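Let us begin with a simple case.
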Amino acid sequence: MEVRPSADGDPLSDILTLAGSRCAVSGRLAAGGDWALRFPPPGMIKFIAIMTGNVWLAVDGIDEPRHLDTGDVIMLAAERPFRLGSDLALPAEDGADAFAAAAGDPTKGDRVTVGNGAEFLAVGGHVTLDPTRGHLLRDVLPPLIHVRSGAPEAPAMRWLLEQLGAELAGGRPGTMLVAGQLAQMLFVQIIRAHLATSGPLGHGWTGALRDPRLAPALRLMHGDPGRPWQLGELARASGMSRTAFAVRFKAAAGVGPLTYLLNWRMRLAERELCCDTTPVSAIALSLGYQSESAFSNAFKRTFGMAPSLYRNRYATTGPSARRSGLRGGAHDDLVDVDIGRLVDGESDGTGDGVRRDPKRVA
């Protein structure tokens, strides 16, 4: 099967891989003097790294412009117009037209020069995501992430920016491939910086991943998603009672821990159905289900159709046939834990068709 959980239970790597994140460097902007450019909403997640100089950034829908200095990196996750310039009060030229003109001029390559081009240099790139599973990442990102040059992640990012700048300036064979790999590492550093922020992240896997008390349980679920995890096991790994763990997990992630596990299993199943020929029965077994029918029922509750039909539709019409998300959204409480019953020890989320070892009592 194509999808394999990370051996050491690394949830961030798992999610970024499943979301199909791929980075590429799209162009460079050199500027000097008084200037301003406007850009249409990017069709993909956009990142901009400030190599030298400083610039003002204004994003539609965000009240305050941001001042970006050398070493700062920003990521735009929302499709909103934005402006860059030395002075945002100046009339802005069309940045998209400038880059389109540069692309058609072999003497310019991917570099646009505004004014004297001697005071400012930025490298831009984009992140493409899988058309179906990309929302796992896109839905939890804010419109703008600004990682300053003084952030804890700054040393690693400075090294990446230095390597990226040298690679783009050198013009050696394989430059775009190497630049893309460096951009991928820069993207991960941006996500790490976002997870480390002191500000609110909202519900979702980002909230759970940032909580150090929940991290051991997340690593267990991602390291072996097919194991019949009991709520008590996950709670003990996190050093909490079942009730306290379930309440804390839901407060951070928006769903209870066993719902999170179910949703993650369904995402792994979806990828395998779309990208592999593994029999449905084998997928069910790998994800811990007692029978193909139990797995099929769980999959149908999530995606609204049986796994065999889902695979056939994808094979016939491609990605357009795939559903855009879990029924009711990624935070849907499909089989969530009843906290009141947990106090009495009556339930920990069983009854979902996942095989369980009766000797392993939570």
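The second case is a distinct protein. As before, the sequence precedes its structure tokens.
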Amino acid sequence: MPGRVRLPPATLRWSVMDETQVAPVVEETRKGRRGRMFGARRGTAGLKNRSSDLAARVLVAVPLVVLAVVLVAAGGWVFAAGLLVLGIMALRELFSMFPRWAVPVFAVFFAFLLMIVAARTGGPPRLLLATVVALPVVFIGGLLAPRRSDVRGLALGMLGLAWIGLALSHAVMLRDLEHGAAILVLVLVATFIGDTAAYFGGRAFGRRKLAPALSPAKTWEGLVIGILAGTLAGWFVGLYLDWLTGLQALLLGFAAALIAPLGDLFESALKREADAKDSGSVFGAHGGVLDRLDAALFAVVVGFYVWQAML
């Protein structure tokens, strides 16, 4: 019609959009840009956090590795005495997680001393006898203590002996076996490498939770990566031991890497029951002695029996 101005289609479309329609589009564009920008920052921060975690783990591991090498190399009563001190520290951490439970502490320490001495002087038969004697020792100690122990305290004391006492006693016996020093190092290396690989592998690839009720951060993917890495670490150590076959090294590494996560989960269950994040603070933000030894306490027991079966 004459006098009517025809607008181009694009201009017409823009003219009919009011500010309530334009604003969401602009805001969405801004959000997208911010998301990409902050996502890149989060990715960089994630890499920095992983690097700092690795550095912190190495700093904690170095003094422990040095201490372990010195004690294992010394062997004999020096090694046994070192494990006795380490075990007392671990037992104290365990009991401190349950402060309301009246544990006969000194009776447990004495029973632990008997177990270490028995393992050093008589092997499995004498250790069995010392373990049997430990039960009445702890019970009598609970009766004579100024603060009489209750059933929970007695049970916690026996748990400490069965878990920490027997494990460290088996470490003493493993060291005293033929080539025991090298086998103990192999087991500890497989445990440490497997635990570290499981941690970082789970963070990188973890999707399916392993035991969310006990340890929400652990995943099945991390578990598999840790077992594979620990097995390979055991095999690698075996390359430097000409008296050990490749198959034996693989089996020892696999046994240690397979059982070690159970030790980790076991301590996680105790900490969950005690509502504690760490067992102690000896290593600052990285927890206590039990937090560093939880996996090894299970691994050395299995390592002893696997290697004894191979002899």
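The first helix runs from residue 9 to 15. The longest strand covers residues 215-219.
Keep these points in mind for the review questions at the end of the chapter.
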